[in-house]
Amino acid sequence: MFTGLVESLGRVVAVVAEPPGVRLVVESAEIAQGAQLGESICTSGCCLSVVRIDGPRLEFQLGPETLARTSLGQREAGHRVNLERSLRLSDRLGGHLVTGHVDGQGRLESRVQEGDWVTCRFSASPALLGQMAPKGSVTIDGVSLTLVDVTTGWFSVALIPHTLSCTTLGSLAEGDTVNLETDLMFKYVARWLEATR
Fold first, then answer.
1. I need a labelling partner for 16 at 20 to 30 A (CA). Which of 62, 80, 81, 101 fits?
2. What distance in Å separates the CA atoms of residue 2 and residue 6, rounded to the nearest whole number?
3. Are 98 and 145 in contact (CB under 8 A)?
């Protein structure tokens, strides 16, 4: 479990083919220090297990499901990824409850600069949009955000200067894909209502 508060911007060092998946090598001295094999690290919204630690480098194995459901298969050496270690039960919950289980992908449709802030509009599948509500929570590439508007075709979020400078969201360009995780509690309530009909 995570909070959606990014701890570090990691740099992809290599993506090595390991059929049927790949090995993703990420450099982040801050996260690697004290990391343990098997530990879960939220990597741009996707919960991945550390399979090797080499100094400041962490290695993860991505299977076919992860490659098909997330944008991590599009990462190349030099790309940045958002990193967050798993939540301790004694930690403050500063963002919202994030599982690191990506529900699907969204696409950045527009980016409007408003002073130091940026408002981003993303398209997503109707199923994902149906699990969102204005002023609710969404996780974009592992970043906990508050939804501004939600329609049947898109949703928007406002990014503050800190988020723009400390996460990969600051470098997003129109047309880029992102990993989306909708609010966990919303999903459980929706599932319960569906089951009781």
1. 101
2. 10
3. no
Tell me the three state secondary structure of residue 38: coil
Q: Are 18 and 61 in contact, with CB atoms under 8 Å apart?
A: yes
pLDDT tens column, 36-74: 999 999 999 999 999 999 999 999 999 999 999 999 999
Give the SS3 label for residue 18. strand
Cis, peptide link before residue 20, omega less than 30° from 0: yes
Strands (DSSP E) contained in 55-114 are 57-62, 80-85, 104-114
- CB atoms under 10 Å from CB of 122, counted, come to 24
The pair of structure tokens assigned to 156 is: 């928007």
Partnered with residue 26 across adjacent β-strands are: 12, 58
**What predicted TM-score, i.e. pTM, was given to this entire model?**
0.94
